[in-house]
Each structure stands twice: as structure tokens, then as C-alpha cells.
Design a protein that fits this description.
Layout: H1 2-11, E1 17-21, H2 31-38, H3 41-44, E2 49-53, H4 57-66, E3 71-75, H5 76-83, E4 90-95, E5 102-107, E6 124-127, H6 133-143, E7 153-156, H7 159-168, E8 173-177, H8 180-187, E9 190-195, H9 199-206, E10 213-218, H10 221-226, H11 228-247, H12 250-256, H13 259-262, H14 265-273, H15 287-300, H16 311-314, H17 318-327
Parallel strand pairs: 1-2, 1-3, 6-7, 6-8
Antiparallel strand pairs: 3-10, 4-10, 5-8, 5-9
Length: 334
């Protein structure tokens, strides 16, 4: 089956594909594309992929907008603000994750006073920075409990400082992104009030999956048609890798990947174990998930009045749907 898929892509004339990646391989959300390259899954699907590391998700969106990359692996926020809002509509090829890598932790020194979101009124609450996923998720959750930003004191700090201030009680609570959330919990600096790293909690609290990281392409119909063979092969490769990452023990994954990609094995396993449940095994961004994601993104700061983005506009091209169907319910391992 794998050989047939690869032969199909080759016969279709899949051209080399430049992919701009907005995150490090050590971030589980960006691992699938790096793993697909390292394991030869792109080659097996008949496509030559050149990965170009961008310094930030915004850089990946810029590369797509400027035409130096055919695919951007970036955050949903940058796909909208960095591409769509700047005149480059995009379509989703593959959704990498369905839950944000963040948790709202309460300081152990405040746990008797802060037991629910409403108890955050008047408190100092740490965030990893304005516009970050942690900030967007917090604002969304607070708004659903009729709590505005002025009802508490938001403090923007780096990961290490957030953990330190949380442990010391200077912050009553903090939204921590990975790996800081896990480190704070392991160190006993705080306890989870809301853990949206778990897909079931994301769906319950946000109304659907939240696609923090996506692979996107320009929504130009002519360009999509011209690159169809390569983009379909890219999607198949990532779907195969993500299904494998979601179903395989982290230690076994570490054993198959090259040492340069794994780094410290214990750290790799610990980080992947905490993130594997968030992978989208079939890579499909559902309408409900796209709607929930857009609602969270809108909560951060006002969009331009002229910006109109809907789940329908972001939906995957038909050839990606066909590529997923060709892989079947259990995609072959990379």
C-alpha cells in the first residue's frame, strides 16, 4: 500500500516542496514534520520536502505570504493574523494538535482561596505574554464567567519566572505553557485548576478542539491545483506520522528517531508523554474545532473590521480529504 501511494505521487509529478517551520523539533506540536523528514516518510510518499526553520511562527507565516514557502507550519493565530489579515488567505492541510499546551495553575500558597475561576477576581495572575496561546485561552475562559481583564491583575513573565513567582505565592495563579506547566507541577509550585492540555477538557471548556499548530497553504485555487500532488503527499506523510505518534509509546518513538532529533532521551520521553494525547491522529480539522479555535483567537485582541474568516473558508482542500481516505482508518506507520 505504501509503495502504491508513493508511486501514485511520483506519477502525478509531485514537485519539490519548501516548508517553513515556525517551531523547534523539541516542541511536540512541531515534531511531526521533523519526524516525517527524519524517517523518510516524505520520500516514501514520493515528495521531496525542504524544511526551512523560521525563528518564530510569525516567520513561517511570512514565508508563505511572501511566496518563499509552499507550506507554513505555524500557529492558528499566525495563520489568521500573520497571513489572512495581511492579504493571504490560507487553507488547512493538516491539524497537528487539538489541545493547547497550557494549564492554569493555582499557587500552593493560595489553593485554599482560589478554587474556581471566579476566585481570581482581584488576584495577580501570571501569563506567558500578551497574545500567547496561554493568554488567549485565559481571556476566553474568563469571559465565559463574566470576568474581564480589569477584574484581575495580569502579570506577564517568562516561564522560569512564572514558576518561581507561583511557588513563592507572589502570583495567586498562572497560565503556564509547556514545558513549564509540567515542571511547575512536578516541583509542587502549584496545582492545576484547569488543564486544557487534555483534549477532553479542551472540548468541554472551549466548545471543541483547539488547533494550536497547523500546516497551511495559500488558498489560491490555481496554486493549490498546480501543487496538488505535492501537497497531497505532504498531508499523507504527516497523517501517517501523527497517527504513529499518537498510538506509540514515547520510549519506542525515541528509539526510532535519530539521536539528533531526540536529544536527551528522558526529557524527550517525558515531554512527549505529556503531549501525545493532543495529536490529531488523522490530521483533520473539523468544522466544530475550527469554529472553537477562531472564537479563542478573536478573544485576544480585536480583528480588523474587514477581516472575515470562517471555518468553511479554512477547510482542507478536497484532495487532502481524498488523501486521508486513501490511507484508510489505520494509516500505515512511517
Amino acid at each position: 500500500m505504501i509503495l502504491a501511494l508513493a508511486l501514485s505521487a511520483l506519477l502525478a509529478g509531485a514537485a519539490p516542496l519548501a516548508v517553513s517551520v515556525g517551531g523547534l523539533a523539541e516542541d511536540p506540536a512541531y515534531l511531526p514534520v521533523h519526524a516525517a523528514a527524519a524517517l523518510g516518510t516524505f520520500d516514501a510518499e514520493g515528495i521531496t520536502v525542504t524544511l526551512r526553520r523560521a525563528k518564530h511562527p510569525a516567520g513561517a507565516a511570512d514565508a508563505l505570504r511572501e511566496g518563499t514557502a509552499a507550506v507554513a507550519v505555524t500557529t492558528a493565530d499566525q495563520a489568521v493574523r500573520g497571513a489572512w489579515a495581511r492579504g493571504t488567505p490560507v487553507r488547512v492541510l493538516v491539524a497537528h494538535t487539538r489541545a493547547p499546551a497550557v494549564a492554569l495553575l493555582v499557587s500552593v500558597k493560595h489553593r485554599d482561596r482560589v478554587r474556581r475561576l471566579e476566585d481570581l477576581r482581584g488576584q495577580r495572575v501570571g501569563i506567558p505574554g500578551p497574545g500567547t496561546t496561554g493568554h488567549l485561552v485565559l481571556v476566553t475562559l474568563l469571559a465565559r464567567h463574566r470576568i474581564g481583564p480589569a477584574d484581575l491583575q495580569l502579570v506577564s513573565l517568562g516561564g522560569t519566572a512564572l514558576v518561581s513567582h507561583l511557588a513563592g505565592g507572589d502570583l495567586a495563579a498562572a497560565v503556564l505553557q509547556e514545558p513549564w506547566a509540567t515542571r511547575a507541577l512536578e516541583a509542587g509550585a502549584g496545582q492545576a485548576l484547569l488543564d486544557v492540555r487534555r483534549p477532553e477538557e479542551t472540548a468541554r471548556l472551549l466548545g471543541g478542539p483547539f488547533y494550536e499548530v497547523l500546516s497551511v497553504a495559500r488558498a489560491d485555487e490555481k496554486a493549490l491545483a498546480e501543487a496538488e500532488a505535492g501537497l497531497a503527499a505532504y498531508a499523507r506523510a504527516l497523517i501517517r506520522v501523527q497517527a504513529w505518534l499518537a498510538a506509540t509509546p514515547a520510549a519506542a518513538i525515541a528509539g526510532r528517531l535519530p539521536p539528533g532529533l531526540v536529544g536527551d532521551p528522558d526529557r524527550f520521553v517525558a515531554r512527549l508523554d505529556g503531549a501525545r494525547a493532543a495529536y490529531v491522529p488523522d490530521g483533520h480539522a473539523t468544522e466544530a474545532g475550527l469554529r472553537a479555535t477562531l472564537q479563542v483567537l478573536r478573544a485576544g485582541s480585536p480583528w480588523p473590521v474587514t477581516l472575515k474568516v470562517s471555518p468553511e473558508a479554512l477547510r482542507e482542500p478536497a484532495f487532502v480529504t481524498a488523501a486521508r481516505a486513501a490511507l484508510g482508518p489505520t494509516p500505515p506507520a512511517p
